[in-house]
Design brief:
alpha/beta
């Protein structure tokens, strides 16, 4: 190596380290330095994000519009659509209203309206805050999912879980701060199942130690968790020590913080060889608990099993669990597919809430259930009373929150008579992000990381607010 190259390398490393140092300094001024201080200012310690990839239909699940029954196959009024952007699948076509075929029931003492497809969640109604006024700018799946998970439609930004890992640090040193689970089985979502991509749980510009760790549905939960044949724990320890010594020498020479990350992650991987098998072994769970999550809990990678695993992760101190369930993109045969999807998620979601509550964990675990956008009130495909589809709709959609200092038994936000526009208490995705951070004791305006000349934030540069009205 010539001296010019070494000088330039040293300069780059200095600038990179300086940037990280500034971020650490800013963060240190706003965050507590120990768990006791954290407990005093936050309502939650953990987040479980149940991400319904593909976008559930709010019209058929949460946003009750009984007057639409008289509007079947009537054109959507121009005063409602107001020339708003539509997808290529709708452009140039008549927009005919199709009311839901499913009945809605008042649930719990609070009387929240919920679809008949959610009988188990109806029993948890008094613990739920149903938000009907979510909205986003993205109208296609890829940018919408990226925005929901990272705060930006453009790839490359840090994900929600990575920000929490960076800002709050680990609780359990033997497991990652941020774990990702992907449901491998679905009953209804047999069409339009988009792939998932690692940027949804990536660390972006943050140090890579904060990226999500995706568990596998088959074989070892984490790749290369098991030792190769002929290599035992003692041999693995010696190999790791030797690699660590070489990496430390390299770190001392050039100061690249990613080398420090490599050292720490290799040590984490070694500890996970003991912690992960214990975590994923459900033999200690009672039959009553297994039954509560439903029959699909016996299948590796099912939504039900992943919900149970999420509870076990929270018990062991994992900060952020993101559980993806695909198959909600219902442009046709929505009633058939929606029955299957709700079968997959209804009982396990309700069991997760009840299970956390029974163990005293719900009060400091914030659960979020949402997709990347909603579905249109006008139909697609075959327009029959019991056979229809719906297009993408970013203007309004529904989701719910529970636990972690959220008021239960309430419905927040309102839409117009066609579930097309928000008319009261809009909630942007960045508002949800701000609220999640707030409940974990973090000011979203101060959790920053200097990158490319900007103080990067999860909530971006547009105004965001904490949704104080839904906080207990």
């Amino acid at each position: 190596m010539n001296q010019t190259f070494l000088d330039e390398l040293a300069r780059r490393q200095f600038l990179k380290a300086s940037g990280m140092g500034l971020g650490a300094t800013a963060l240190g001024s706003l965050l507590p330095q120990n768990a006791v201080a954290q407990a005093k200012i936050s309502k939650a310690k953990h987040v479980i994000f149940l991400f319904m990839a593909g976008a559930p239909s709010q019209v058929d699940l949460f946003d009750h519009k009984p007057d639409l029954e008289n509007q079947f196959k009537q054109p959507l009024p121009e005063s409602i659509s107001n020339g708003q952007r539509v997808t290529a699948m709708t452009r140039g076509k008549e927009q005919l209203v199709v009311p839901t075929m499913f009945k809605f029931n008042r649930s719990g003492e609070s009387g929240i309206w919920m679809s008949e497809l959610l009988p188990h969640l109806q029993k948890q109604a008094d613990r739920l805050c149903i938000v009907k006024s979510f909205n986003t700018n993205a109208i296609n799946h890829d940018p919408a999912k990226t925005y929901f998970c990272t705060g930006s439609e453009l790839p490359g930004k840090a994900s929600m879980g990575s920000w929490l890992s960076y800002g709050l640090g680990a609780i359990n040193k033997d497991l990652p701060d941020f774990i990702v689970l992907n449901s491998a089985f679905w009953t209804g979502g047999t069409r339009n199942v988009q792939g998932l991509y690692s940027r949804l749980w990536g660390s972006g510009f943050l140090p890579s130690q904060h990226q999500g760790v995706k568990f596998q549905t088959n074989g070892d939960p984490v790749l290369f968790l098991s030792n190769p044949q002929g290599v035992n724990a003692q041999v693995r320890r010696r190999m790791l020590d030797a690699a660590g010594a070489l990496n430390q020498k390299h770190l001392d020479e050039i100061g690249d913080q990613e080398i420090a990350t490599t050292i720490s992650q290799q040590e984490m991987a070694f500890r996970m060889q003991a912690s992960v098998p214990e975590l994923t072994d459900l033999s200690s769970e009672s039959q009553d608990v297994m039954d509560a999550y439903g029959p699909e809990v016996q299948k590796n990678g099912s939504f039900a099993r992943n919900c149970l695993l999420a509870r076990r992760m929270i018990e062991r101190g994992v900060r952020f669990v993101q559980l993806f369930h695909r198959g909600w993109d219902h442009h046709s045969i929505l009633p058939k597919q929606l029955r299957g999807q709700t079968y997959d998620v209804d009982q396990p979601s309700a069991a997760l809430i009840e299970d956390l509550a029974a163990r005293g964990l719900l009060e400091d675990t914030l659960i979020v259930f949402a997709g990347e956008f909603g579905r249109t009130v006008y139909g697609q495909g075959k327009l029959a009373r019991d056979d229809y589809g719906r297009d993408h709709h970013p203007r309004c959609f529904s989701g719910w929150l529970a636990g972690g200092g959220i008021k239960g038994g309430i419905s927040y936000g309102e839409t117009d008579d066609f579930s097309y526009n928000v008319v009261k208490n809009p909630v942007a995705v960045r508002d949800l992000h701000a609220t999640l951070l707030h409940q974990l004791g973090v000011d979203h305006q101060k959790l920053i990381f200097p990158f490319q000349g900007l103080d990067q934030k999860l909530t971006g540069v547009e105004p965001a607010r904490v949704i104080s009205e839904i906080l207990a």
